[in-house]
Write a structure and sequence with these properties.
5-stranded parallel β-sheet, alpha/beta, Trp Operon Repressor, Chain A, 2 domains, 248 residues, elongated, single chain
Length: 248
């Protein structure tokens, strides 16, 4: 897989992709990440890439000409061009999976007040946001997207099952995980995890995943099919927590 990062600050990426899973994926030739700078596609001495907005207002807007030239220099029929912008649809694990199956991904990093709308409408295939907050630019978002994609590529992670059981892969948040020591500062590992009863462990993990999702991301439960025992489990624990909270 090839990824091109369209950025005014290519030096931003000099470190994040040289460690961890993304580094392994690059060393194994599973993913190739390159940067391309719109300033190299300007035609004036000052390498101008932005200008004041029509109609007035604060801030500067990225001009369409350099961005078009930059993207067109790397685009192929197999490319997917994505603008990273707070106006885009929310990036999630399903979209990461979708992107990981692409042959070529071009990520356009916004800056300043934003980009000329003709870039959004005429150049990019998609517009994606990594969250409901504003960054100085799209570079940090690009790192998030690349890392989330790289770890999904076959061969990037030693144990593929570890990836398949992460939060959001099943539509729910992940279960709690424990390792040695069994007792740490008066906190014990749940007894069920050391019984060797695989069915009981699987049931406990499913219940804990449901409980974590109900507590922190109840919106994710909308499409989940729950058994009657699972419904009773959630009702019991959430009701208990509600009353404990009121009495505290």
């Amino acid at each position: 897989m090839r990824v091109h990062l369209v950025s005014l600050f290519p030096e931003y990426f000099s470190g994040p992709f040289d460690c961890g899973t993304t580094r392994i994926a690059r060393l194994r030739n599973l993913i190739e990440v390159e940067t391309v700078n719109p300033r190299d596609f300007t035609d004036d001495a000052h390498r101008t890439v932005d200008d004041h907005p029509f109609g007035g207002g604060a801030g500067m807007v990225l001009k369409p000409e350099p961005l078009y030239r930059t993207v067109e220099s790397v685009r192929t029929p197999a490319s997917r061009v994505v603008l990273l912008s707070p106006k885009g649809r929310r990036y999630d694990q399903a979209l990461a999976r979708e992107f990981s199956r692409l042959e070529h991904l071009v990520l356009v990093c916004g800056r300043y007040k934003g980009v000329d709308e003709r870039v959004c409408n005429g150049l990019c295939d998609d517009e994606v946001s990594v969250g409901d907050y504003v960054l100085a630019g799209g570079e940090a978002a690009a790192v998030i997207v690349v890392e989330s994609i790289a770890r999904l590529l076959p061969g990037a992670v030693g144990d593929a099952e570890s990836v398949d059981t992460d939060s959001f892969e099943t539509g729910l948040l992940d279960t709690p995980w424990f390792t040695r020591p069994r007792r740490f500062r008066d906190a014990e590992v749940p007894e069920v995890l050391v019984t060797g009863d695989h069915a009981a462990v699987a049931r406990w993990r499913r219940e804990q995943s449901l409980l974590a999702t109900a507590r922190h991301r109840p919106d994710l439960l909308g499409d989940e099919t729950l058994s009657e025992p699972e419904r009773e489990f959630l009702m019991l624990h959430l009701t208990k927590e509600m009353f404990n909270g009121e009495s505290s």
